[in-house]
Design goal:
The protein has 606 residues and is of the alpha/beta class. It has 3 domains: 101-327, ABC transporter type 1, transmembrane domain (ABC transporter transmembrane region fold), CATH 1.20.1560.10; 336-422 and 504-606, Rossmann fold (3-Layer(aba) Sandwich), CATH 3.40.50; 431-501, Rossmann fold (3-Layer(aba) Sandwich). The protein has helices spanning 18-28, 30-61, 68-117, 120-123, 128-170, 176-219, 221-226, 230-256, 260-280, 286-297, 300-327, 386-393, 416-421, 437-441, 450-459, 463-467, 486-500, 516-530, 542-545, 565-571, 573-582, 597-604; strands at 348-357, 360-370, 375-380, 401-406, 409-410, 423-426, 504-508, 534-538, 550-555, 558-563. It has a 6-stranded mixed sheet, with helices on both faces. A hairpin with a 2-residue loop joins strand 4 and strand 5. Helix 5 packs antiparallel against helix 10 (286-297) and helix 6 (176-219) runs antiparallel to helix 9 (260-280).
């Protein structure tokens, strides 16, 4: 399985099938499985001891002269056996809970590491809510599959075996009814598993769909409320919730017709008739009848618990299948741990690069080069492919044609970790974690000191507003930084880039949410930061583009012009149209050949 990043783990699980995957994790904690099995066997054995002691006492009470010592010894036998049973049961339940919790921990860690290693092309196609359902609920179902699922199933299995061993010791013929019950019970269990398993898969899948819709609605809650679609979204969610409910009801309907309950009653009746016939024939005593019926009564525990345990196992197996569908999903990127690893100098070369999403090309045969320390502006209309170029640079995606070189080495030959750690991308849609501002600025550099964090914030013109917050740099921002304004989020992102000090800096419309006054302050900081490093600048603001050493003009995924600002104004109609559209008529004129108010009117007519 290829992946962008793989967390080093002390084991490599068997993911060829759900059954082998479950068995692999069971074997990893075999000592707890052994203790669980021993506890289950001793539980059944000591439970079978009660009918034996009671039967012996009953036989003694039927005698003309009752030996009180025998009655007392039988009572002590019950007390001692059940005390040992209680101790062993405590050991069994404690072991089974540790067993289940450790398997849940291992599966969750493995699934999380797998998700972190998937490429963006994989995550782009996956609903977040469904992924969250797998990480939380499906992993939890594997815990419940182990305990109480397998715990009860193993325990109930022992309760089926003990009567088969003990009843022939009373009288050989008495094995007939218990043997028939066990055989019939196993057939009924098999049919139940075959019926419940596909329903359990549907339950898990429908729950994932419902969770996905809920996550999407909460993510876009401002859009939902802004469009007054609360009732519509509520109806849609109710429909999905009803679908989950319907599958649960269908599963309950199948479980309600569990024939082992009827079979148990019939078996107890037939066992009593058989024992009575042998008693009247003088082949067994009344005490043996009591012992035998007590042994047959042990079948009640596996009958009642098997329905619950089998449902848990069916659900856990379905969840394991959903987890494996994520782990086994092939991605189109690999970490390339042994790849090229060196400090980046900053030379970038695009050679006939093409790329597309879902089979449709958005970039066509791009060729350009950037020298170390240069600032290159990439401009073009919306949808021309500007942002896609930045995602190819750090291998968020791989090219479908051509190649990209950094320091004359194909990016696919670089160690992915080395490559990405030296390229900082500040996007228009800033993502901040629900952590402190200091932690967000230092993200990616765990060793960053407080003075370094504050220095980065000062360069990004963020120190003043951070200091005014109630807890300063320790202020916790909301999810995605919603408690901050757009401009504040972008300045924190820029501070993050300053703190990491990357050789290559990509600014993807990173000052779009900053007002003019703040932009004037931050502009000098950006270009000071750009000195000595390669910078790619995506923007529509002429005040920023004119700083660039080189400008590339994109149109519908193709390079239609490139050069310096003054040259492009004269030679490229596409370049002139961009500023006729994005620059305001009242913007101040720029010297040195920049666009003036009067010339902009002429450009708009071009």
């Amino acid at each position: 399985m290829s992946a962008e990043f793989v967390v080093t783990a002390p084991y490599h699980s068997d993911t060829s099938s759900p059954a082998r995957y479950i068995w692999f994790h069971v074997r990893r904690h075999w000592i707890y499985a052994v203790v669980l099995s021993i506890g289950a066997f001793t539980n059944a054995a000591f439970a079978a001891a009660i009918p034996y002691f009671v039967g012996q006492a009953f036989s003694e009470l039927q005698k003309p002269t009752v030996d009180q010592a025998i009655i007392l010894s039988m009572a002590l036998g019950v007390i001692i056996s059940q005390s040992l049973r209680a101790i062993l049961q405590l050991m069994r339940n404690f072991s089974s809970e540790i067993f289940a919790q450790r398997i849940e921990r291992d599966v969750r860690d493995e699934l999380y590491a797998s998700l972190l290693g998937k490429s963006m092309s994989y995550h782009d196609m996956q609903p977040v809510g469904d992924i969250m359902a797998r990480v939380t609920n499906d992993v939890r179902e594997m815990n419940l599959m182990m305990n109480p699922g397998f715990n009860l199933l193993i325990g109930s299995g022992m309760f089926l075996l003990v009567p088969l061993v003990s009843t022939p010791l009373i009288h050989p013929q008495l094995i007939l009814v218990p043997l028939a019950f066990v055989f019939g019970h196993m057939i009924i269990q098999y049919r139940l598993v075959m019926a419940v398993h596909p329903i359990a898969e549907s339950v898990r899948a429908s729950f994932g769909e419902m969770n996905s819709r809920l996550a999407e609605a909460l993510e876009g809650i401002q859009v939902v409320r802004g469009a007054a679609q609360e009732e519509s979204e509520g109806r849609l969610f109710a429909k999905l919730a009803s679908r989950v409910r319907d599958f649960f009801i269908l599963q309950g309907d199948i479980e309600a017709r569990y024939a082992s309950f009827l079979f148990l009653g019939l078996s107890i009746g037939l066992a009593f008739i058989h024992a009575s016939l042998l008693y009247y024939d003088g082949q067994i005593t009344s005490g043996q009848v009591v012992t035998f019926m007590g042994q047959v009564g042990l079948f009640g525990f596996p009958t009642f618990t098997s329905l619950f345990s089998l449902s848990r196992i069916a659900s856990g197996t379905a969840s394991a299948s959903r987890i494996l569908s994520v782990i086994n999903a092939e991605t189109n990127l690999d970490q390339n741990r042994k790849g090229y690893d060196a400090p980046i100098k900053g030379r970038i070369v695009f050679e006939d690069v093409s790329f597309g999403y879902l089979g449709k090309d958005v970039l066509h045969d791009l060729s350009f080069h950037v020298e170390p320390g240069q600032t290159v502006a990439i401009v073009g209309q919306t949808g021309s492919g500007k942002t896609t170029i930045t995602k190819l640079l750090n291998r968020t995606y791989d090219t479908t044609k051509g190649r990209i070189l950094i320091d004359d080495v194909d990016v696919r030959e670089w160690s992915l970790e080395s490559l990405r750690s030296q390229i900082s991308v500040i996007e228009q849609d800033i993502f901040l974690f629900s952590r402190s501002i200091a932690q967000n600025i230092a993200f990616g550099d765990e060793d960053a000191t407080t003075p370094e964090i504050e220095e980065a914030a000062q360069k990004a013109q963020a120190h003043d507003f951070i200091s005014e917050l109630p807890e300063g740099y320790e202020t916790i921002v909301g999810q995605r930084g919603v408690t901050l304004s757009g401009g504040q989020r972008q300045r924190i992102a820029i501070a993050r880039a300053f703190e990491s000090d990357p050789p290559i800096l990509v600014l993807d419309d990173s000052t779009s949410a900053i007002d003019s006054a703040t932009e004037d302050k931050i502009q000098k900081a950006i270009w000071n930061a750009a000195k000595g490093r390669t910078t790619l600048l995506i923007t529509h603001r002429l005040s920023q583009i004119r700083w660039a050493d080189h400008i590339i003009v994109l149109r519908q995924g193709r390079i239609v012009a490139q050069g310096k600002h003054e040259d492009l104004l004269q030679s490229s109609s596409s370049y002139r149209r961009i500023f006729a559209r994005y620059e305001t008529p009242n913007a101040p004129s720029l010297s040195n050949g920049s666009v003036t108010n009067s010339s902009r009117a002429n450009l708009s007519q071009d």
